[in-house]
Amino acid sequence: MTELTLSRRSLIAVSGIALTAGSIAALVSSPVQADQGNMDAALRQLQNALESLHRATPNKGGHKERAAELVEQAMAEVQAGIAYAAEHGGG
């Protein structure tokens, strides 16, 4: 029974080492992805702003619609910035 328990422990230990080595190899071989926490937060806030504009009552002299267009443009720019950073390793 002791040999069986020891074998299971050895198997678990070897599996853990192999998993760790595989994870390290994956990190080393993959390109570094920049943390885009602030850009992601900005995008979420712009999405919330756009939803608020869509829910706002009409009759704002076209300004509500123009604001929505500008927010959509801002969202596109933030997404472009995130994509650029991902391609060029920027943070």
Write up what this structure looks like.
The chain contains three helices and no strands. The chain folds into two domains: 1-30; 34-91. Residues 23-32 have low confidence and may be disordered. It is elongated. Helices cover 80% and strands 0% of the residues. Helix 2 (37-55) runs antiparallel to helix 3 (63-88). It has helices at 2-29, 37-55, 63-88. By secondary structure, the protein is an all-alpha fold.
Helix content: over 70%
**Which regions are unreliable across 5 or more consecutive residues at pLDDT < 50?**
23-32
Q: Using DSSP, what is the number of strands?
A: 0
Q: In one word, what is the shape?
A: elongated
- Count of distinct structural domains: 2
Mean pLDDT, to the nearest integer, reads: 78
| Alpha-beta content class | mainly alpha
**Rg of Cα set:** 25 Å
Q: Quote the distance from N terminus to C terminus.
A: 54 Å
The helix/strand order is: HHH
* Sheet with most strands: none
Number of helices: 3
Our estimate of the beta-strand percent is under 5%
Quaternary structure annotation: single chain
Brief characterization of the structure:
The chain has 91 residues and is mostly helical. It is built from 3 helices and no strands.
How are the SSEs ordered, and which strands pair?
Layout: H1 2-29, H2 37-55, H3 63-88
Helix pairs in contact: 2-3
Which features does this protein show?
91 residues, mainly alpha, elongated
